[in-house]
Specification:
By secondary structure, the chain is mainly α. The protein contains nine helices and two strands, in the order αααββαααααα. The chain has a single domain, classed as Hypothetical protein af1432 (Orthogonal Bundle), CATH 1.10.3210. Helix content is 53%, strand content 2%. A hairpin with a 4-residue loop joins strand 1 and strand 2.
Length: 190
């Protein structure tokens, strides 16, 4: 298994608030994504989700936040927060991890379409950044239930949809497609 902690520690110092926040949030997402994947495969035995990859990629999905200007979560970089996914992609590509890198780029919101980028005038490359593989989709979905500003609680389905609705109906529709695939995470047993 990939030593994701060694990669994280190249950019974050253990014991510092940004490291604690990143690893706490990422572990929550990794554990939920793993449980959702297991339930999905029980319901769809013909499908296979790479559980090791899901855990590793979930632990690294937000690595790019360190370069963003998000003081509320302890990040004091220069880039807008919306760019943390593409920054993470670039970081992980330098480590020779192209599959993990794509999770970084494709997890923001319920994925970001080129249409979203144009209509919302987002400072992002003009391309679709939508989750494609089951692994990308489950991490993107699990991530929506944990906020970095309230790390110790899982969001309800209603609260999650409400927070996504400010990005438009397409974002909510994509989220609902993920919901159809993976179900309500609050119904999972610990």
């Amino acid at each position: 298994m990939l030593d994701y902690n060694a990669i994280i520690e190249q950019y974050y110092t253990p014991g510092y608030p940004d490291h604690t926040l990143l690893t706490t949030h990422s572990k929550q997402v990794a554990e939920l994504a793993t449980r959702l994947s297991q339930r999905y495969m029980e319901q769809h035995p013909e499908e296979v989700i790479d559980l090791d990859f899901v855990y590793e990629a979930a632990m690294l999905h937000d690595i790019g936040i360190v370069m963003t200007n998000a003081p509320g979560i302890g990040c004091y970089g220069d880039e807008p927060y919306i760019r943390h996914g593409i920054i993470g992609r670039e970081m992980l590509e330098k480590h020779g991890l192209p599959r993990h890198a794509m999770v970084c780029e494709r997890h923001t919101g319920s994925g970001i379409s080129m249409k979203d980028i144009i209509e919302q005038k987002l400072k992002l490359p003009l391309r679709d950044m939508l989750p494609i593989t089951l692994e990308e989709k489950v991490i993107c979905y699990a991530d929506k239930f944990y906020s970095k500003s309230h790390v110790h609680r899982i969001k309800t389905m209603e609260r999650t949809i409400k927070s996504l609705s400010k990005f438009g109906p397409d974002t909510v529709a994509r989220f609902n497609e993920l919901r159809e695939l993976f179900g309500d995470p609050t119904s999972l047993k610990e």
